[in-house]
Write a structure and sequence with these properties.
Length: 192
Amino acid sequence: MKTALKQITTLMAGHPFRGSIQHASDGEVSVVQMKDVDPESGIDSTDLFKVHLTGWKNPDYLKPGDILFNGRGNRIFAVLVERDFRTTVAGPHFFIVRVQPTIVRPAYLVWYINHNQAQRYFSRHVAGTALPHINRTTLEDLPVIVPPLEVQERIVNAHVCRLKEKALLERLIEKKKQFLDALLDKTLEQYQ
């Protein structure tokens, strides 16, 4: 089945802050910002800013299964909220995507948004030149291929295996480099 993203999700804007986000060590709410996300490693919660929320808008706290969509800059991507962050909001540069889990798995949708089919769609519909961005309507109209749930799970499992393999290969390359550097250092010591 192929459908528009807006047919299978609810889309919300990140929390609207007036001005820059200022860290308050005694703040009661955490904020996920661009510096805290990466398309491969997800959300890094170690340095989330704490803030005091003011204003009229009730915060949309992040929930497990939410998707944060970064539609600004040269890297358009999505990350999955995998754990309960309790009182944490998304910064204003994100869209929060909530799926209908009986139709689409959040992890599958994150994979799909980051996959080349969706990325080609975004590159054709990007707005702006100095700071490329994807607007809400473009995101809502994203055509999504929705296979059966069991197929979605197999795709996600294959993707997770690929990421693990990549991490292992990177570690192996680093170990080989360290071994070779040590071997060459010992070789050079013979000629000092």
